[in-house]
């Protein structure tokens, strides 16, 4: 059984995955890696399938999967991305999207006030239901009376388990974000599950914010947050806001987890970035920080912390790709991190 299965994917995916695999290799942990090079847009175009049963079996036989990026502009309106990402998400029931947000260097903060830079929080996003359930449709389509409906699906099971995960993740506080004052039925369910989850986890402090207030407070007092838990759509939006506060998408790692099985999919928050793909300038740090999450998940805490420190050191020394103001290529920035190790 391979310790890690790897789907490099499209665009800059293979470029940043190469960096991450170089990092894992440098630690000499003897981790067996199974690379699924063929999963991607070319195969989807040829065969109409990007991720087959045999691929899923290989992924299932590993302890975790590292994914670069999936997406190609000319396949945007096909089922391609959903096919791969949702297939993986549902096959392994990866309901907990875990997005740590840390400001690795003051220089990267868009906020002027130094007190606002002690940013170190985690966004826990529900990954399998909510507004992105795909249930809905267009009534009287193309007429002047067209009505478009997208169902916001929340189940007691789904809400309870993501709240439990948030409490298990908290160091000092869990902040529930919702819009229960305007979206009533789902709001009621989240609020009730929230009260029960808080009773099950008396250790952590709790806080509740409506999503509009949460967006404001992430900018005005980001240092106050520890764990933020939110539905699929709210978590999606807030995590991009938080990523921007921490230096941008080139630095944001994520994991989609099933805490019960212990299986996880690890991927940088950014996509395939077709505008810079093939030029060797993609920032590898998001994928290196993603590899750090993966290493920690597999029990290699020392290596994970060393990776994070080396990335922070490279940023401090200005040894970065152009998106962070540096002049290095993807490979040079990766070497800078490896040298700092
Ligand atoms: P996808 O459809 O795969 O999500 P996208 O067009 O949404 O791709 P993203 O990858 O999300 O693109 O990137 C958005 C912007 O951020 C692009 O301009 C891209 O070049 C930039 N970007 C994303 N990732 C990186 C990175 N690792 N290094 C530098 N720039 C990046
Ligand atoms: Mg995108």
TrEMBL record:
Record InterPro entries: ICDH/IPMDH (IPR050501), IsoPropMal-DH-like_dom (IPR024084)
Q: What does the UniProt keyword field contain?
A: Manganese, Metal-binding, NAD, Oxidoreductase
Where the record annotates domain Isopropylmalate dehydrogenase-like, the positions are 3-337
Tell me if Nucleotide-binding is a UniProt keyword of this record.
no
Q: Which residues form the signal peptide?
A: none
Can you name one GO molecular function term for this protein? Answer: metal ion binding
Keyword Oxidoreductase belongs to the record: yes
The source's domain of life comes to: Bacteria
What are the required cofactors? Mn(2+); Mg(2+)
Q: What is this protein called?
A: Isocitrate/isopropylmalate dehydrogenase family protein
Q: Which organism is it from?
A: Kitasatospora xanthocidica
């Amino acid at each position: 059984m391979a310790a890690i299965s790897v789907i490099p994917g499209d665009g800059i995916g293979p470029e940043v995955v190469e960096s991450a695999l170089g990092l894992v290799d440098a630690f000499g942990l003897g981790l067996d890696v199974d690379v699924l090079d063929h999963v991607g847009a070319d195969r989807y175009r040829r065969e109409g399938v990007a991720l087959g049963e045999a691929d899923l079996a290989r992924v299932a036989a590993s302890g975790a999967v590292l994914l670069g990026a999936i997406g190609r502009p000319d396949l945007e309106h096909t089922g391609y991305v959903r096919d791969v990402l949702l297939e993986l998400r549902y096959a392994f029931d990866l309901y907990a999207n875990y997005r740590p947000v840390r400001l690795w260097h003051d220089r990267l903060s868009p906020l002027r006030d130094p007190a606002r830079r002690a940013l170190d929080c985690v966004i826990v996003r529900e990954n399998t239901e909510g507004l992105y359930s795909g249930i809905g449709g267009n009534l009287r389509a193309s007429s002047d009376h067209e009505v478009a409906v997208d169902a916001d699906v929340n189940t007691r099971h789904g809400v309870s388990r993501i709240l439990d995960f948030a409490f298990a993740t908290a160091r000092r506080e869990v902040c529930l974000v919702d819009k229960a004052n305007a979206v009533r039925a789902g709001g009621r369910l989240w609020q009730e599950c929230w009260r029960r989850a808080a009773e099950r986890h008396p250790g952590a402090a709790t806080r509740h914010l409506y999503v509009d207030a949460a967006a404001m407070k992430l900018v005005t007092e980001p240092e106050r947050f520890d764990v933020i838990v939110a539905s699929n759509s709210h978590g999606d939006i807030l995590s991009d806001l938080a990523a921007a506060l921490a230096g941008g998408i080139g630095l944001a790692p994520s994991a989609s987890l099933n805490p019960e099985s212990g299986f996880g999919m690890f991927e940088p928050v950014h996509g395939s970035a077709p505008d810079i793909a093939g030029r060797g300038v993609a920032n590898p740090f998001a994928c290196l920080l993603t590899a750090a999450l993966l290493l920690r998940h597999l029990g290699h805490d020392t290596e994970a912390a060393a990776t994070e420190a080396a990335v922070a050191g490279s940023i401090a020394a200005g040894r970065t790709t152009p998106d962070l103001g540096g002049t290095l290529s993807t490979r040079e920035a990766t070497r800078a991190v490896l040298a700092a190790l």
